Amino acid sequence: MPRMLDVSEDVRAEIGDEEADRLLAGENSPGSYDCTSCRTPGDCEQERTSTVLFVGDETAVLAFAHATCIPSQVVQVAEEQLQGAVRSITGGERRTPEVPDAAPGQAVLGVTSGLVLIEDELHPALVVEPTAPIARPGSGGTTDEFLQLLIEQGFRPVADLNRTPSPLPGWSVLLAMGQLHAVLQPGTGGGSPVAWWQAHQPLQVTEGWRTAANKSHTVLVFAAPVGSIGQQPREDLLRDALEKAAVNGRLVAAAMPLAGT
């Protein structure tokens, strides 16, 4: 039976026609695999399967996913992050999640995952909060313009936490190998997506969060300025903090598809 493998033009351009043709002929592709997104088994002889190429500075890793989870695509990631993914694939140590520096202002974007109840349904959510004010790039100022910068990117102010945020075209949340890797934004000139935020090491999410994300194929991303949310130990406290930030006009949000566009 022919293999039901999808190789996008971007992936083909990276790996070359010869390698792509070998994959499509079944020479180098697995019969069965663990989906790089939802971590459940797949079989490229029985169901449509996407090739997903993770590319770092020096390393490239070809992974496979259900086509219903993510399309075939090239994902640019930091070399350190890709090496961590390779270690996790090969049975290396479990690593503690971290967050990277985020320009400008040398702030760190803290990212918290949780489930948010909206209209009697649990939605997978990410809450992004810098550790310091974010000034406009190139301004040389110290005024915190984090929310305004996001609004200019298409995020919407949240007035009511009981309403689902609007979709943000071109952005997506990358869940690979069952862990959170990045929030992707459109590349310049229509190129491959690039990381707006990415973890130094893959970020663990709960089974409930992953199940909800795979069910809806959508993640709600909330963002607030430094000092608005804080590290909340429980999801009910996280929601309280989000509601308070919304009331004070210090919360924006967007709905993003899971794992790429």
Descriptive notes:
By secondary structure, this protein is α+β, with helices and mostly antiparallel strands. It folds into two domains: 5-76, no CATH class; 101-257, no CATH class. The protein is 22% helix and 33% strand. The chain is built from six helices and 15 strands. The chain has helices at 9-15, 17-24, 79-89, 146-153, 207-216, 235-247, and strands at 5-6, 32-34, 41-43, 49-55, 60-66, 73-76, 101-102, 107-118, 121-130, 156-157, 172-176, 179-185, 194-203, 218-223, 252-257. A six-stranded mixed sheet has the order 7-8-9-14-15-10. Strands 1, 4, 5 and 6 form a four-stranded mixed sheet that branches. Helix 1 (9-15) crosses helix 2. The protein is globular and about 60 Å long. Residues 88-106 have low confidence and may be disordered.
| Portion in helices | 10-25%
The total of beta strands comes to 15
Order of helices and strands: EHHEEEEEHEEEHEEEEHEHE
> Strand arrangement, largest sheet?
7-8-9-14-15-10
Concise synopsis of the structure shown:
With 261 residues, this protein is an alpha+beta fold. It has six helices and 15 strands.
What's the topology here?
Blueprint: E1 5-6, H1 9-15, H2 17-24, E2 32-34, E3 41-43, E4 49-55, E5 60-66, E6 73-76, H3 79-89, E7 101-102, E8 107-118, E9 121-130, H4 146-153, E10 156-157, E11 172-176, E12 179-185, E13 194-203, H5 207-216, E14 218-223, H6 235-247, E15 252-257
Parallel strand pairs: 1-4, 4-6, 9-14
Antiparallel strand pairs: 2-3, 4-5, 7-8, 8-9, 10-15, 11-12, 12-13, 14-15
Helix pairs in contact: 1-2
